[in-house]
Amino acid sequence: MASITSVSYSVLVNGSPLGIVKPQRGIRQDDPLSPYIFILCADILSHLIKVKAAASDIRGIKVGLEAPVITHLQFADDSLFFCQTNARNCQALKDAFDVYEYYSGQKINTSKSVITFGSRVYGSTQARLKTILDIPNQCGGGKYLGLPEQFGRKKKEMFNYIIERVKQRTSSWSSKFLSPAGKEILIKSVALAMPVYSMSCFKLPQGVITEIEAVLMRFWWAKTNEKSGIPWIAWKRLQLSKADGGLGFRDLAKFNDALLAKQAWRLLRFPNSLCARVLKARYYLNDSILEAKPRSYQSYGWASILEGLDLIKKGTRHLVGDGHLTQVLLKIKHFLWRIITRALSTTTRLNTRGMKLDPTCKRCSLSDESINHVFVECPHSLHVWRLAQFPLQRFISPTDNIEVSLMRMLDIQADGSLSTEEQLKPFWLLWRIWKARNNLIFNNQRENPARIVIQAQAEVKDWADSLVQKSRYNHQHLCSFDEQWIPLDLPYTKCNFDAAFNSNTNAVTGGWILRNNRGHPLAWGSSRLSPAQTPLEAEAKALLAAMQQSWIRGYKAVIFEGDCEGLIKMITHSNHDISILRLCQDITFWSKKFPNVHFLFTKRCNNSAAHHLAKLGCLNSSFYSDNDKPPPWLSRHLYFLDYD
Hints:
The chain is of the alpha+beta class. The chain has 25 helices and twelve strands. Helix content is 47%, strand content 10%.
């Protein structure tokens, strides 16, 4: 702040600075520091809203049960705030605005601010809340960031402003004498770029696109503003590339789909972004975005993204991996490895090792017994594949080698429409085919193809059932990690903390997690701390870091809970160990900053979330998150209460 208050200017006269001008109203608007100062101020406003939300004074909106709670969104110098339509929420929001105005010196322009309500809010309630917030304007038919604020059923009318803008721009050009080259540049660089932002968010109605192209076509062929000219070539031909005889004008409909596909691609690439989590909770909660389907209650924006998603699906291909994620019985994995490495004792392979054997297949006597023949080419094996009633004609061909066929079988794992048994069935069929071949060679017993299929189906079913039981056991086991986490009464927030101490290097990492009375996380983090000599010192440093992070986030009534009983007793009974006396004094100093603070001991099994966050600090110098949607690796260590 000293750089801001002490700023001064000089005037260059003949290249030399002359005099000093000290502004009395702060830095100028285009000062290089301005955007950074604005970001700091906006972050303060965001922090004020978070504090109100943590105290339950402001409750944001959720679009679904699993959706994140949104209290505010900030776009450059614009902010959107969400709260419930009651006096308490609106008054808390107004109080946050007042505090922000007082300390920042920036006053919110209520004449430019607008407020919108849900369709079920009574008019009297709307008027009362407008008075509390001191915002008289109500949004509806205007525009925000160049887009309509609200959408009705008549989409074409909503986007008529784009047509009017293109008409106005081309009309201003028509009064000038432009060559065809000049018109081409203006159409490509200006006219066709005008609807880009709208097209990147919404699917424009075909009628709007047709009218825009008609306006551009009239401008292209017109001689003057009064004469429209003769369209010698259709606009579709002008949209062809110059290599194909056109002029390379964009096809707006296809360009619109490409821009929407880019939005869908972002949702696919960044599933943890706020936008992706909101849309997933609303439209494809238990599926991937690639399996998302139209809904009867969907918004126009989501319907537009689905248009781009179709383009993504047409251009995506499943990348076949190495199969390490496929859960297959270990003996089957070794067997598949032997197939790939051609380490099976077929007669042709044995002959390469100097054994003089008849290479003819003992089952069909039609060809030499190679690995490809045993599993793919032999009529006996083909009969097994057909009886399995599996669409393996797409994956197995007698003309392919066994490696190609196996890679295609791995591709089945990406087919979400198939059950686990159907996905794993090919591997057990290969196993049973080989077992049947060995039974014929060594025991002279020929197995019926139908029996082979039945045995494979029975074995794969047993394996699939065991996977389900294992998954259930893991879920119960993981959920029991933190089942003894003790809930608390409002207005307290609980902060669990823990430390990870390396006795060889004296390195210390601390982890902490803030949770509300239902166990839902409010914030969490981990960081590397200064070295310590003992585990007790490490725990004290982790507690101090947790207190500082809690205070920074505005939590004033906090219960700090850790699994170091000795440290908790020292803090609560003021019986400090001389080795950590300075740390205990720091903890006491910070505890006085909290109006309500308590320190509790808990068992290690009840502190697993903080314990794993402390271990995370070994990988990162620091990591903090204020997200209310924890990642899966953290969720498995949390215990949520199911009451409202």
